[in-house]
Amino acid sequence: MPDGRQLADRVLDAVNAHDLDRLSRCYDRHAVLVTPLGVCEGREQILGYWESLFKGFTDMALTVWNRVECADPGFSEWMMTGTHTGSFALPDGVVGASGRRITVRGCGACHAKNDLVVAHRDYFDLLELYYQLGYSLVPD
Asked: pTM of the prediction?
């Protein structure tokens, strides 16, 4: 029976392969994914999140820097790289392709139950992503 660590590795492998079918087999149908971009409740919303990333960053890749050796949650530090070649949803709207390269550092935790991810949390600096896409803060 896979633990959170093993399932986190499966998710990372499926993400790097841009394989939505493999990702669907990683998540429980009621799983929750929490990121700075929003909360996805249920497998379908989670797959929609990953699909949006794959369309927005067609060469997106996650490189793991560190894996914490514990069973649950599976925890890792990573770096996401890619080129913004397609539309991508941000919390304040959809942005078209900018052609810019991104390098965003983050970390994630996956909780397992019954051989599937039931809770997945990714943390990264959303402001860093905005700046790399060419956006800046504008006060109200």
From this structure: 0.91
